[in-house]
Amino acid sequence: MAMKVALLGCGVVGAEVVRLLQEQADELAARIGTPVEVGGIAVRRLGRARGTGLDPELFTTDAMALVTRPDIDLVVEVIGGIEPARSLILAAIKNGKSVVTANKALLAEDGAAIHDAAREAGVDVYYEAAVAGAIPLLRPLRDSLAGDRVKRVMGIVNGTTNFILDRMHTQGAGFTESLEEAQALGYAEADPTADVEGFDSAAKAAILARLAFHTRQVTAADVHREGITGVTAGDIASAEAMGCVVKPLAICQLSEDGSSVGVRVHPAMLPREHPLATVGGAYNAVFVEAESAGRLMFYGAGAGGAPTASAVLGDLVAVARNRLAGTSVAEGGHDTGLPVHPMGDTVTRYHLALDVADRPGVLARVAEVFAENHVSIKNVRQEGHGDDAQLVLVSHRAPDSALDATVRRLRALDTVRSVASVMRVEALNNAD
Ligand SMILES: NC(=O)c1ccc[n+]([C@@H]2O[C@H](COP(=O)([O-])OP(=O)(O)OC[C@H]3O[C@@H](n4cnc5c(N)ncnc54)[C@H](O)[C@@H]3O)[C@@H](O)[C@H]2O)c1
Ligand SMILES: N[C@@H](CCO)C(=O)O
Ligand code: NA
């Protein structure tokens, strides 16, 4: 007997899901062991020529009636946002349907409750498309690495901001023109705030931290978030002078004693030899460090209709197979309870460029401020001279609160005319 799928939303991703379900019907049936049939599509408005080739009778504006219909086996949610997606998914679960969703915002906010409901109902909730689009990442973290201890997950999980910073580096373009180009190419959201202010990456980081560290304690609100709107041409030039590139990073890291996790989203300088430094354009990549596996890198298209639909279809095959086998994969049943520590407790490394007067004692006074805050300097160089001198310093690793206090104190010094660039530096080797 065919499995019946209800599709919620028929936008960029939904339309591609419909196309692939039709074009690949035979392969999907063979891989699952039974045919998959579209049982209904919930849309906001009827009557538009949708060009899907599907029976117009399949379209409905009553999504709730669709997800609770007894003949529906699987629900694919690609509406996005919190409501009505949450109520629809919970109703589907309660009615015994397995769910596939691409909704990072909802999972970051309410993932724990949704997984609880799924466990209770004995159904699946799969969401590979929610983080880094087409890239197989969440199931590798959940399944393939289930026997290992993940220490750190660091990635570029927003295509729009990677595209903007890449253009600033490679073409010397300014922030605004790069954003306009990203919008014209269709990478950025209509309102790009979610991209450039880091909300999109923060939701993805929360999901990654929960999976990597088996903790239910992380939501998007717990993620330290800084956007890329403050990145200047000066920061880009400073990074290049150090052999680095500026990348929009999401970092989930176990504390050194393993008792808490840090989850943060901010631009940072990366040495050119770091695998993430070579990820250009709108591509995504995620670097995972695990105790036994060592370093792993996942790379590919993080957005776009077809790539995202590929991840949705992969999940659809998985949940359909589980259903046929009369089983489901419960998630979130084991909670390590690891809490999120404040950003100030996260150990980071800063790059600073200070506009100073080239006079005796200036470097000594700057070094004193570092010492007063117990921050060790890794290297320092001077560029220019006279009134145009710039001191460029890179710190050793220190608590972010100590580095932040150092910068605030430096800003107040008479000898420092201005702080031209402040940016965290990430490295492959975390020892110094
Ligand atoms: N587009 C991407 O590249 C991408 C990548 C990864 C994940 N996602 C996620 O996929 C989901 C869908 O994204 P999208 O880009 O297709 O968005 P979209 O805006 O193109 O499509 C959403 C569709 O849902 C419809 N809709 C809204 N409310 C509805 C309701 N109550 N009932 C039925 N339909 C309703 C809208 O009319 C729209 O057609 C989001 O959660 C998004 O975060 C998208
Ligand atoms: N706006 C997002 C889409 C994928 O979530 C991006 O630029 O990566
Ligand atoms: Na993915």
UniProtKB/TrEMBL annotation:
It comes from the Bacteria. L-homoserine binds at E189. PROSITE patterns: ACT (PS51671), HOMOSER_DHGENASE (PS01042). InterPro entries: ACT-like_dom_sf, ACT_dom, Asp/hSer_DH_NAD-bd, HDH, HDH_cat, HDH_CS, NAD(P)-bd_dom_sf. Keywords: Amino-acid biosynthesis, Metal-binding, Methionine biosynthesis, NAD, NADP, Oxidoreductase, Sodium, Threonine biosynthesis. Its cofactor is a metal cation. NADP(+) binds at L8, G9, C10, G11, V12, V13, G14, A15. The active site is at K204 (proton donor). Catalyzes the conversion of L-aspartate-beta-semialdehyde (L-Asa) to L-homoserine (L-Hse), the third step in the biosynthesis of threonine and methionine from aspartate. Belongs to the homoserine dehydrogenase family. This is Homoserine dehydrogenase. It comes from Nocardiopsis composta.
